[in-house]
């Protein structure tokens, strides 16, 4: 991962990951301790970040929001 991605994942309030089992391995490697939740199309609306909070959506490609 690029330094910018690592910084983004360290500074958001929550990481929404499609596959938390695989994501946690990479997050641990980079010493990232941001809370993570599972995120899929069927629960997308319920998992959106509350107002005033930031979230990163982790898919095959990681994108910050």
Automatic annotation (TrEMBL):
GO terms for biological process: methylation. InterPro entries: 4pyrrol_Methylase_sf, 4pyrrole_Mease_sub1, rRNA_ssu_MeTfrase_I. GO terms for molecular function: methyltransferase activity. The keyword Translocase does not apply. SUPFAM superfamilies: Tetrapyrrole methylase. Keywords: Methyltransferase, Transferase. The keyword Transferase applies. This is Tetrapyrrole methylase family protein.
């Amino acid at each position: 991962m690029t330094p910018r991605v690592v910084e983004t994942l360290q500074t958001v309030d929550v990481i929404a990951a499609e596959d938390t089992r695989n994501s946690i391995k990479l997050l641990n490697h980079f010493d990232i301790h941001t809370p993570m939740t599972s995120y899929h199309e069927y629960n997308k609306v319920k998992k959106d970040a509350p107002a005033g909070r930031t979230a990163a959506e982790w898919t095959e490609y990681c994108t910050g929001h």
